[in-house]
């Protein structure tokens, strides 16, 4: 018979493992002393860490390194590079001499910099030491403590762990795994991520960027060299690069965007152009890289012409703007015409306005204006322009065509007089051109034709026929109006070049239809604001200019007012931030131009008759409608009387020129708008008088 198992189980007792270290009954005194030293050291390190003493020491080490960097200011590297460039130029005395002069200049600058820097350091150190010493001698204990805390805090601030602060200030959301299992511990073997930088510290770095951009291959690295050294140039740096034999600079310039990517900068910061110096050749280009994404800045620079009472267009040209390095530039238009294009609202009108303003202030210049769209942009030129055509109706197109033919005949007449003069007195026109002396003697100065909204004129002309046969009984119905206008404008440019004529043609849609090749090719100078692609850049500037580095398509959206001007000669192209002139300011310049012509007896044509006709005051309905129009255009609901009158004169000078504020108030009262009211704070005034839109609208609705 089986015996049942007992229900009692043996009990197990868990015993802790034996201590790893032996326990001594009587520990030696030396071991106790060592433990005490370690304990004291641990407490000391903890106190020092809490007091940020390591940060303070590290901070003063960093301050010392910064002082040394500023003391040297990269001059040793510049001198070494210059000496290396001199050695590489062996056998070329001209280049070697120029580079040796650069090296000597760097040494002299380095010497002067060290003297100046040491003097400043000694001044500051002496002032601080004197102040602290005087305070320690004459001050109290609290003053001494404050000075000590200041010294401690300065070092701790500069020695703080910036990376830790930056990481602590950027919260990172936990992942799903972290939420379930807790935070992950960093791996000791994983190196910290290093951000790729694009600092160009020498020729090797720049050649590496050229390889990455695909301008030269890795096999051609040794054949690519820098002429001279990389040196500061305005708000950036520049370098002259000599490509391997057989490579053209134009092929490198066409890859400017790729080079910008290799340098880790925006495309608008990179400028590349062929080396036009005496030592330059087809395989050498000049690179300039700006420090900032927008080296032209956002500040608007008022035009110099705003403060000028009179201007000599022939001698002084047109002051147009400033380049990225801060240099001022003047546009010379005598003997050539200019084509201006770009996207809308990027500054074309402002540049064209500068040209017209310079012409307005020269009382001996004859100006003709034609625009394909009526508006306030060119109203001011009515004050002095010999001809003025605005609009794109068939009648306006024909008027513009007649104007072109009159100008061609006028230019040919001057040419005939020059031909006759060269036969009788060739010494008076040695180059066969109109001279300033002849222009004053004949009272026939320079002639400027301004054609704005070119695409509107051409589009309207394309839908009509224009007869070119003077025979009224001819059965010829005419030719396509666009072709006729393009050919006639090109002919004007050709025949007017040496007799003082010039054209300014403005379009805002740079494509094959709005920029006819026939007209572009006869315009020696071309200017282009921002466009969307390289093809549009070539439409305005031409293939050669874009191949030479002109790149308005690389401008940023924020760079309004920045224009690329192709000079049409060996000087190449230049990128500028144009000066600023508003429509009211332009009108004031035009009024000065009118008075100058009245005084000189040169006010003719349209401007001479302007103001004599159509001067009847506006009717009541017109007055109220005009007021509502200008108020809505200004985007306000209340307006001061003075500003309302200024806007009315700007929009319709033939109706409101010469009207005074009391007269306007009286006419508005008679029209049922009532008198002026208090407007509350407006235009920097506490509570000026003026009109609300609703009171004028109510009078107009009656």
Describe the structure.
There is one protein chain. Strands 6-5-16-15-14-7-13-10-8-9 form a 10-stranded mixed β-sheet. It has a 4-stranded antiparallel β-sheet with strand order 1-2-4-3. Strands 17-19-18 form a 3-stranded antiparallel β-sheet. Helices cover 46% and strands 13% of the residues. It has 4 domains: 43-160, no CATH class; 203-290, Threonyl-tRNA Synthetase, Chain A, domain 2 (2-Layer Sandwich); 308-466 and 480-593, Rossmann fold; 620-701, Orthogonal Bundle (Recoverin, domain 1), CATH 1.10.238. The chain has 26 helices and 19 strands. The chain is an alpha/beta fold and 702 residues long. A hairpin with a 4-residue loop joins strand 5 and strand 6.
List keywords for this structure.
702 residues; alpha/beta; Threonyl-tRNA Synthetase, Chain A, domain 2; 4 domains; 4-stranded antiparallel sheet; disordered N terminus
Concise synopsis of the structure shown:
It comes from Streptomyces griseofuscus. The protein has 702 residues and is an alpha/beta fold.
The major beta sheet can be summarized as: 10 strands, mixed
Alpha carbon gap, first and last residue: 128 Å
Enumerate how many helices there are, as a single number.
Answer: 26
**Rg over alpha carbons:** 39 Å
The CATH class of the largest domain is identified as Alpha Beta
Question: What are the SSEs and their pairings?
Answer:
Blueprint: H1 29-50, H2 53-72, H3 75-88, H4 93-138, H5 141-158, H6 162-168, H7 176-181, H8 203-212, E1 225-232, E2 236-242, H9 249-253, H10 256-263, E3 270-274, E4 284-290, H11 313-316, E5 318-323, E6 328-331, E7 338-341, H12 348-360, E8 366-371, E9 387-390, H13 394-424, H14 436-442, E10 447-452, H15 454-461, E11 465-466, E12 479-480, H16 481-496, E13 501-506, H17 517-522, E14 525-528, H18 534-541, H19 543-547, E15 562-566, E16 573-578, H20 583-600, H21 605-609, H22 620-634, E17 638-640, H23 641-651, H24 653-656, H25 661-670, E18 677-678, E19 689-692, H26 693-701
Parallel strand pairs: 7-13, 7-14, 8-9, 8-10, 10-13
Antiparallel strand pairs: 1-2, 2-4, 3-4, 5-6, 5-16, 11-12, 14-15, 15-16, 17-19, 18-19
